Amino acid sequence: MKLRTFAILAILFMIAVPMFAQGTPQTSTGVFVLPVAFAMAIASGLCGLAQGKAIAAAAEGIARNPGAGGAIRILLLLGLAFIESLALFTFLKASV
């Protein structure tokens, strides 16, 4: 079992090595920053609204059924992480 796990990890590491290879640096001239700013403003605003709505729904759900508080809290944290990742993906996509 250990040999099989080691072999799978070795293959995955060999596949992932080219990902870390350094390429030629890209120089960008005349980058227009305004679309990036608008994209981040819209994404951040909508993520803030979604997080507020998720927290309000979770608080209401816990108030209605206190016994399910642990499950609701876990799902709330997972949902908040997904909502926040949308803003991070927007930042990465817009800045490239």
Q: What features would you describe in this structure?
A:
There is one protein chain. With 96 residues, this protein is mainly alpha-helical. It contains three helices and no strands. The protein has a domain of 61 residues: F1F0 ATP synthase subunit C (F1FO ATP Synthase, Up-down Bundle), CATH 1.20.20. The termini are far apart. The mean pLDDT is 83.
Characteristics:
flat; 96 residues; F1FO ATP Synthase; mainly alpha; single chain; 76% helix
Cα end-to-end separation: 43 Å
Give start-end ranges of low-pLDDT stretches. none
Q: Which fold name is given in CATH as the topology of the domain at 36-96?
A: F1FO ATP Synthase
Question: How big a fraction of the residues is strand?
Answer: under 5%
Q: Give the biggest sheet.
A: none
What percentage of residues falls in helices of 4 or more residues?
over 70%
Shape: flat
Count of alpha and pi helical runs: 3
Q: Which architecture name of the domain at 36-96 does CATH use?
A: Up-down Bundle
Mean pLDDT: 83
Short description:
The chain has 96 residues and is mainly α.
What is the strand and helix layout of this fold?
Elements (H helix, E strand, L loop, with lengths): L1 H15 L17 H31 L4 H27 L1
Helix pairs in contact: 2-3
